[in-house]
Write a structure and sequence with these properties.
Elements (H helix, E strand, L loop, with lengths): L10 H10 L1 H13 L5 H15 L7 H5 L3 E2 L4 H8 L3 H8 E3 L5 E3 L7 E2 L2 E2 L7 H5 L8 H9 L6 H13 L5
Antiparallel strand pairs: 1-3, 2-3, 4-5
Helix pairs in contact: 1-2, 2-8, 3-9, 5-6
Length: 171
């Protein structure tokens, strides 16, 4: 019988560990890039499933508090409908547009976060649904971006730490 690992969910501890492990994570990134892609996605997906099942995102909500949340053009109308507002009123109240025409939520933390829960969960944006993106293919190519969130997301932190063990990475 195997014993499930204990995962760290304390954000202050994770942030402190991220600072301590910056150099180690840079070496881990280089080691992953030096190896073939064989099996990396499968490991990332499996670890993501295991860790995600043990981490309660509503006890954290840090992604909604600290990230710029991009909104796809085609997500604006469904959001407006969900909020029972016009598209113009929704955009004026909740959305900003960059010089390049990209849409994003205009506050941090997100307007729609209350008690670490999403108040528009059914209508939440693709970027929100997909975060922390560990279920997607191309883990090796996205690892640098993933490590940018290592100190803010308990799922990412624990997946990366477990992956170091599984890949035999020596700190």
């Amino acid at each position: 019988m195997s014993i499930a690992p204990l995962y760290i969910a304390d954000l202050s501890l994770i942030a402190a560990k991220a600072d301590e492990k910056q150099e180690e994570n840079d070496r881990f990134l280089r080691s992953v890039h030096a190896r073939g892609e064989e099996g990396l996605d499968a490991i990332a997906h499996r670890l993501n499933n295991q860790v995600s099942a043990s981490i309660d995102c509503t006890a954290c909500g840090n992604c909604c508090k600290t990230l710029v949340i991009n909104v796809a053009d085609d997500e604006l109308a469904p959001l407006a409908e969900h909020l029972q507002l016009s598209v113009a009123a929704t955009k004026e109240t909740y959305i900003e547009e960059s010089m390049a025409g990209r849409l994003f939520i205009n506050t941090m933390p997100c307007h729609f976060l209350s008690d670490n829960k999403c108040t528009i969960y059914e209508a939440r944006f693709t970027e929100c649904r997909d975060f922390p993106h560990l279920h997607k293919p191309g883990f090796k190519d996205r690892l640098a971006g993933t490590l940018m969130h290592y100190g803010r997301c308990p799922i990412i932190y624990n997946v990366v730490e477990q992956m170091k063990v599984e890949l035999g990475f020596v700190a």
